[in-house]
UniProtKB/TrEMBL annotation:
Highest taxon of source: Eukaryota
Source lineage: Eukaryota, Metazoa, Chordata, Craniata, Vertebrata
Keyword Transmembrane helix: yes
Protein name: Ig-like domain-containing protein
Major subcellular location class: membrane
Residue ranges of the TM segments: 430-451
Coiled-coil stretches noted in the UniProt entry, renumbered to this chain: none
Gene Ontology terms, MF aspect: transmembrane signaling receptor activity
Keyword Transferase recorded: no
């Protein structure tokens, strides 16, 4: 009862000044500009009605207040913004949002289940390439303003709209298909991050965005070397970081679970361990990690990091080590084959058909994605291997495969037709037709052999 009284008092002293009506779509998000000032030194409060279930009650005066899928923050105009992610039916209903002693609003959120905002959730692109992603919208939003925003550390910035454009960015709207396309040219490490893609609804004195999320991952092209060779991992960075310590990290590289490869390197200094050298070239704004005498253990995902208030992993690449031992299999159509691949625990089990190993980083197919029931695999994690089994081989299965992800082995598979069996069938057929001319046609892969 006491808690309810506190909520009611908060409601009265803040006074509900206006109503906000917002519509979102299941699986998407909404971003609402309340049209009311933030007031940095005042308590922010958000509750779900009618039970007055507290969602946010912030007394620390942070610029970005987050609780699960709910966020309150201050935009550049000084207004309080309301951000609700991953909408579902349970999020629908009334909310009360207010600033103590200043203002309060009632917001009604409608969540519709119409198909909206189909978007590629994760986009991978290498530095210097063009990033592409698309956002669908429903017919009733065909004439609304299309917009792209980006999440920052404690804000959300408008990247592109009718009123704000940027070099290297472009939007094209296909109103016949209800989809607009976003392109970012000559991608840099700073372009990576979470983008919000959607439409803007103006309901003066408030407005809101109906959005879906795109996670843009920027990486360097894979580094592919053979066992025993040397590899260089290049980490370009923005010139504003030239005086900051940098490091190279292998694996997950979260702030909590870091695996730095050596001491950090600062400016023109060089650090060196047994097989690793880090050097920072501030003139070119790039630091380099060099690893000699590569082994299977060196293969993996590497992060370039710069030390700010915390460790920032801003760019990654894959180091693929090709084992010197190659596998060669020669089989006949209809045979089976088992191929054993080396595997690291954190790797996706990959079996890729391609001319070059580097193509498998972006275009390789994980074994879980193979829909051909002739392919199967068995995992022996304790032994660090997995086995690919292919049954009922066909000639089109011939080619070069790369077995494993970061530790990769070249596999050459040759599938032949059994000519002996074909000849027996043809000769046997000819002998049956004794006493006259006969025409026997034996077909072998698009080639016709005629026997008279």
């Amino acid at each position: 009862m006491k808690i309810l009284l506190i909520f009611f008092t908060f409601y009265l002293i803040s006074a509900a000044e206006k109503d906000i009506d917002v519509t979102g779509y299941s699986g998407g998000s909404v971003l609402v500009d309340s049209g009311e000032l933030w007031f940095s030194d005042s308590v922010k409060y958000m509750a779900k009605l009618p039970e007055w279930r507290t969602i946010i009650n912030d007394k620390k005066h942070n610029k970005w207040i987050n609780d699960g899928k709910f966020t309150l923050f201050q935009n550049k105009e000084g207004n309080l913004m309301i951000y609700i992610r991953d909408l579902n039916d349970r999020d629908a209903g009334e909310y009360w949002i207010g600033v103590l002693y200043k203002w309060g609003i009632d917001m009604t959120l409608h969540v519709e289940n119409d198909l909206y905002g189909k978007v590629t959730k994760g986009v991978m692109v290498n530095i210097g390439e063009t990033a592409n992603f698309s956002c669908e919208y429903t017919q009733n939003h065909i004439n609304d303003v299309k917009i792209i925003l980006k999440e920052g550390k404690d804000s959300i910035e408008t990247i592109y709209s009718r009123w704000k454009t940027k070099e290297r960015y472009s939007i094209s709207d296909d109103k016949q298909k209800n989809v607009f396309h976003m392109k970012i040219f000559a991608v840099t490490p700073d372009d990576g991050g979470v983008y919000l893609c959607g439409v803007w609804i103006n309901r003066h004195p408030y407005s809101y965005y109906i959005i879906t999320t795109v996670d843009l991952h920027v990486s360097m092209p894979p580094v592919v070397r053979r066992e025993g060779e040397s590899a260089e991992i290049f980490c370009p960075y923005d010139s504003i970081y030239k005086s900051k310590p940098k490091s190279l990290c292998k694996g997950k590289c979260s702030t909590r679970d870091r695996n730095p490869l050596s001491e950090t390197v600062r400016e023109e200094k060089e650090t060196k361990t047994d097989r690793l050298t880090l050097k920072d070239d501030v003139t070119a704004s790039v630091f380099t990690g060099s690893i000699t005498a590569l082994t299977a253990e060196d293969a993996g995902k590497y992060w370039c990091a710069v030390t700010l208030e915390t460790e920032l992993n801003y760019l990654h690449t894959h180091l693929m080590v090709i084992m010197n031992e190659e596998l060669n299999f020669t089989k006949y159509e209809g045979d089976d084959v088992s191929i054993q691949c080396k595997h690291q625990d954190e790797d996706q089990k990959s079996f890729c058909k391609a001319h070059e190993a580097s193509m498998c980083v972006k275009d390789g197919v994980s074994l879980e994605m193979i829909i051909d029931d002739r392919f199967s695999f068995s995992d022996e994690a304790s032994a660090g291997v997995f086995t690919v089994n292919i049954t009922d081989l066909r000639e089109e299965d011939s080619g070069i495969y790369w077995c494993g992800a970061h530790i990769t082995t070249k596999v050459t598979l040759t599938v032949k037709t059994d000519f002996t069996l074909l000849n027996i069938i043809c000769v046997s057929s000819a002998l049956v037709l004794i006493g006259g001319f006969s025409l026997i046609m034996c077909k072998l892969n698009l080639f016709l052999y005629y026997v008279i």
